[in-house]
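Methods, example record. To illustrate the input and output format used throughout this study, we show the complete record for Archaeal/vacuolar-type H+-ATPase subunit F. The sequence lines were provided to the predictor; the line carrying structure tokens was produced by it.
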Amino acid sequence: MQYFVIGDEDTVLGFSLVGVFGMQATNVEQAQRAWDKALEDPENGIIIITEDVADMIRPVVDRYLFSESFPLVVEIPPAHSDGKQKDLRALVNQAIGVSL
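The corresponding predicted structure is encoded as:
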């Protein structure tokens, strides 16, 4: 199982440093293209997407977010958010309901 990240440039770059492939999205068209690319590979079991990009394609994301089908979708705060951030492990644990 692989991860795929969709988000701003800093988020995608940061994840690429640990070997996670992804695509940058700054508008609806890029977000949809990145989402479709993530779904092309059945090995992508977890899609990590920043909240702001997920909001661009909310109906599409919600179909997976609120279903039992794969891939698992984990929304994370964007790189430059003002809110308190959880670490990725905590977000995945919350999404799947078990502790990794």
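Annotations derived from this record:
The mean pLDDT is 86.
The two ends are 15 Å apart (CA to CA).
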